[in-house]
Amino acid sequence: MPKRIVVDPITRIEGHLRVEAEVKNGKIVDAYSSGTMVRGIELILKGRDPRDAWAFTERVCGVCTTVHALASVRTVENALDIKIPPNAELVRNLMFCAQYMQDHVVHFYHLHALDWVDVVSALSADPNKTSAIAQSISDWPRSSPKYFGDVQKRLANFVESGQLGIFANGYWGHPAYKLPPEVNLIGVTHYLEALEWQKEVIKIHTILGGKNPHPNYLVGGAPCSININEANALNMERLAIIHQKLVEAKQFIDEVYIPDLLAIAPYYLDWAGIGGGVSNYLAYGDLPTNGYSDVSSFKLPRGVILNRDLSKVIEIDPTDEEQIKEYIAHSWYDYSDGNKAGKHPWSGETKLNYTGPKPPYEHLNVDSKYSWLKTPRWNNHAMEVGPLSRMLVAYAKGDKDVVGLVDTVLTKLNAPVEALFSTLGRTAARGIESAVIANWALGFYDQLIANIKNGDSRMSNMEKWEPSTWPKEAKGVGLTEAPRGALAHWIVIKDEKIDNYQLVVPTTWNASPRDSEGKRSAYEEALIGTPVADTEQPLEIIRTIHSFDPCLACAVHLYDEKGTYVHNVETF
Amino acid sequence: MTQENNTNTIILGIGNILLGDEGVGCHVINFIENNYIWDGINIVDGGTGGFHLLSYFRDYSKMIIIDATMDGKQVGTVSILEPKYASDFPTALSAHDIGLRDLIETAVLSGGLPKIILITISIEKIQNMVMTLSPEIEKSILNVVKKIEKILKIN
Fold it and tell me: Which domains does chain B have, with CATH numbers?
């Protein structure tokens, strides 16, 4: 009889993802992933003005506050056939890139690194040796023995104060930690530096989106006007700040993030053979350079890879109602045509029906429904989404920036391309993507400056702003790539109002329960075969799940499970 | 009419407006924005901003944070706290993705805190997917604004 262990919550900070895994002879033989909070944003949007939807959807998440707004304005633009001007596309791309750089770095250092870096071990590092290692892997200037010694002292004070705070959840001293103390100290030091760094890069959102968090978006363009001499517009001074932030961001990624990744990975190469998962990868792609309708112009290409076959990228059609469907066989919802049906989001339904155990409970009843996440499928296949999927699709399509960097990283780690299909591969793909994006962002900036110099200050297309210009009924889909994976919003507009609105978010693809045929989704599949040394401290489970960058906040908003759960669910 | 030099002060409302009363901190900011002109005082609707909010802890020497709390007090009670350590902050309500307390701990670790005054509004529960405030909470907004005026010596 396998032992069932429960990890809840599984996100490092806060979250509502629960994993139940069955361990036999030190390895996971089965796993169940459950979202324990319900999302109801679809219900709140019904009947509202489609032009306002972005402002509500971007509030479902505090981590990627901007991506839902982007998907939302795109879905309305798609429904009403609105083309945005080139400058607006560049502004959206720049905000996209800033979000990626900030989010990937925060994920690596603040949400994932401590699965590999032992904070307590860093206290016994030799600052001289640490400095020597740091200087051998990077030109980053903050690398003197004194600098590392000072950080170590600060860390010691923090630990001694007994207020471990954000470090409180680590399994410090676990035998699965393999780094020497000096590399641990480098990791912790850059954890602190990254905190300071991330708040700077995201100021690009404040400049282009008017505020941060939750920057402004606009159906038809971007809500910032270009006037290089006007104090309150996007002027030369503000453009120069953006440029400076982009340059600093690139420097941090190239000189801190990537060298750290390459310094840590060699100690964990066994993780290149663990955590592979479903073997199918989906990316909607993004960063258009010739209008969103020209998919071939995307810097991040769109497509599907099946069975890890990198010789073939299959096209996706999000408007084909046969391709993407959501199932509820193991989710706490009802469909009007039964439990086995799959529904394309345009005809999607959000009818909640909690049938799980009354909390607190020991185990979920995994034979029936066990999650607030629906189960999305592409042509009936379980898909992984996220940086690994995007990098694999770009690699398979031969994007030279991506191919170059992927091959460099694989060569440095002396690993074959198959190593990518793993927990370590997922984490490496995120770093590779950050470096590629940092370069592209500077290109978008140069293009924006060139447009302005050529006298093009158009930022929005307001021809179809007035609802009186809209058709009586329209359908749209807005796609983007959140840092953690493919994100799409589907809308049905009737009589100038939202008639149906459905989100399929990245963590729903990855963290969903089994489908009606019993096939596992990405998290559940990736855990099969994972070794667990100590069932009381299942660090290995956390490593693989964190490698996906889970964000349950948007996947299953929003309910306090400690509250009067069952009762409240019945009331809406 | 004396007014302190408040240019280095920021008023930060946090919460999730999709969760009814839980979002009262943001509603307070909107109310101030629509009804008052306070010279040189910065206000921000921080929403569920998580780490995105860290720069406000660095760029200002004084912060007034407005947040909902489920502390069991009568609904609509407005309380003022002057927390010094991360552990003095109330446990985050679950809907903030990266809670206020996580953020404070992070700020402490990476260089210390500005002077923080925390104004909490007691709510009964988090309502799921409700955009409006309950009447007691709606009424408390003016009370919060009065407390802010007193703190900042705005007459």
Answer: 9-148 (3.40.50.1450)
A165 has a pLDDT exceeding 70: no
3-class SS of residue A462: coil
What does DSSP say about strands B9-14 and B42-47: parallel, antiparallel, or unpaired?
parallel
- Cβ partners under 8 Å of residue A182, min gap 6: A125, A126, A129, A130, A133
Residue type, A306: L
pLDDT value, residue A317: 96
Residues of chain A neighbouring B128 (CB-CB closer than 8 A): 38, 40, 558-559, 568, 572
The label of the residue with tokens 């010694």 reads A149
Virtual torsion, Cα B126, B129, B131, B133, nearest 10 deg: -20
Residue B26 belongs to what H/E stretch?
helix B24-35
pLDDT digits (tens, 9 = 90+) for B3-20: 456 678 999 998 888 888
Max CA pair span of chain A: 73
DSSP code of A332? Answer: S
In this predicted model, what pLDDT tens digit does every residue of A241-294 receive, in sequence order? 999 999 999 999 999 999 999 999 999 999 999 999 999 999 999 999 999 999
Give the pLDDT confidence of A397-423 residue by residue, as tens digits. 999 999 999 999 999 999 999 999 999
State the Cα–Cα distance between residues A457 and A444, nearest whole angstrom: 15
Burial class (CB in 10 A: 0-12, 13-18, 19+), A455: exposed
Chain A positions in Cβ-Cβ contact with residue B87 (cut-off 8 Å): 163
How is domain A3-569 classified at the architecture level of CATH? Answer: Orthogonal Bundle (1.10)
pTM: predicted TM-score of the whole model, two decimal places: 0.91
Q: pLDDT tens for residues A181-214? A: 999 999 999 999 998 899 899 999 999 998 888 8
Q: What is the number of CB-based contacts under 8 A between chain A and chain B?
A: 130
* Residue ranges per structural domain of chain A: 3-569
Check CB contact of B50 with chain A, cutoff 8 Å: yes
Across the interface, whether the CB atoms of B49 and A214 are under 8 A apart is answered: yes
Test the B interface: residue of A114, A557, A569 with most B CBs within 10 Å: A557
